[in-house]
Amino acid sequence: MKYEELAKDIIDKVGGKDNVKSVVHCITRLRFKLKDESKAQTEELKNMNEIVTVMKSAGQYQVVIGNHVPDVYKAVVEVGGFAHKEEVDQEEEQDTNLFNRMIDIISSIFTPVLGVLAATGMIKGFNALFLALGWLEEGQGTYQLLDIIGDSLFYYFPIFLGYTAIKKFGGSPFIGIAIGASLVYPTLNTILAADPLYVLFAGTVFESPVQFTFLGIPIIIMGAGYASSVIPIILATLFASKVERWLRTFIPDVVKMFLIPFFTLLIVVPLTFIVIGPIATWASQILGQGTLFVYNLSPVIAGLVIGGLWQVIVIFGLHWGLIPIAINNLTTTGADPVLAMMFATTFAQIGAVLAVWIKTNNDNLKTLSIPAFISGIFGVTEPAIYGVTLPLKKPFIISCIAAGIGGGLIGFVGGQGYRIGGLGIFQIPSFIGTSGLDLAFWGAILSAPLAFVLAFVLTYIFGGINKANSPVMQEGATSSEAPVDPLTEKSTSSVENKGEVIASPFTGKIVPLVEIEDEAFSTGALGKGIAILPTEGKLHAPASGTVSALFPSNHAIGITTDNGAELLIHVGMDTVQLQGKFFTSHVKQGDRVEKGQLLTEFDIAKIQDAGYSLATPVVVTNPTNYNLMTTEEKEVKQGDSLITLIN
Hints:
47% of the residues lie in helices and 15% in strands.
């Protein structure tokens, strides 16, 4: 591990592992909460070569590292055995929106198992394909073993989700596993096969047979039990995590190891079977029927909407809210149209990427397009979206339109997925149902080349590829077309050594960097530059380049310009404490940005009302490469010359 020794030294000098309550990081520094700050060896830390400085602010002990702080943070967490708290802090403090919190919970629960879920689904899909083609028969051992592998995760899904869900809710993982295992206990199949003792709610939509009781209380197990179910185990582990925390408040430490699991399981498992399970199952059935009802109103419109918006949904992380619905549909009805209608999306993306690759005169874009195209074939479209189509805008819009048309075709032929499988070409077997290779299957498959060709042709003709990517000459930049001396093989351009001009990212008053209250900036430890007191809450790109760093709270952004200057813009002092409140980012790390492009919006009044200074350093973090001159103006407008870099 690259920073292991540095991590050990830092932990030792902040007073050791036992002195650390928690540690998070922002864009340049580690932020410790220490039990006793007097134990920290501040001067020794400051004197370390790898550390810029040490500061104490807002109850935090801040060790300033620089732009590579995420890597150092990972090493500190691993060496110290600390929890990865930055994600928890964001969840608990930054995001108070209920919908966003739900998306975060769902993604945290399902992300760890999605790889294996896709793999087992692909195995089932290929097994179904081999059966449909006559290569295998149901009674053959090969078919049966492949079926066992394919069903292994989905049949015992509550056990896997029991582990991931209770971890998300802060409980003990093995308690979650035990609850999940109880829901798929093998004897339940025998119990469900017996005649019911009686029926509850007979004649209603909630009609439920009762096969056995617990202390005289009826146990309702709907359908074929809880194998493959999603909602019951998530709710059960949520309840279990709360019971576990409650028990910890009064059970003596000497017996906590076994009494907490003992009472948690005795309380939660019966309540899951008596209350949580039935209610969750009814909710699952209503949810499944509801999505199918909407789909049946107009499959074509549903396909157009889901297919066309799927890439946008993924960008904002909202697809995590649809994946559980798809799994629930498979559990309750045996088929799912939701994920089926996004099948053409990946092929629309690579169609647009291929057009860009063929037509662009930008060598960097050509280089990016090749791996983006290859990975897109297999359903991994992030390189295509973030590296090629989205920065160009028009190709991304065109790919959405083509994907929507493909989704509409899938809806028209009634295409549905019969298992969770892979993406891209690996999703094909998931369309094979009990009817084999029917019209719905072939219609769904046809949507892929249709979306691909549409996206390719429209992007090639209307994508504005070279216009969008023509190099923008900054003052002092060297054109690739500059004349070259045939003897020295050096450019003869008169602007070659002028460096570049960094524009003001917003309108405001100039503040000398030495007057900034943050020592890491005022001493120049983090770089050379100037500060601005903004009068408007919009931060624009000061130069064309790439977003090299963006902290989740959106208060600071790093940009590497096309000419190699590394910029850091830190909005306000100690505003990381706001945990993203009052900040809205319009870019992501790795995005290509153009000079003047709106990057971030922030609410000046609310930030000031919260007690934070808005003095914003704009610094060059690799100043040794340049001679640097800052503006002599007292006030600047967005786009005015702020810093001049001379090689």
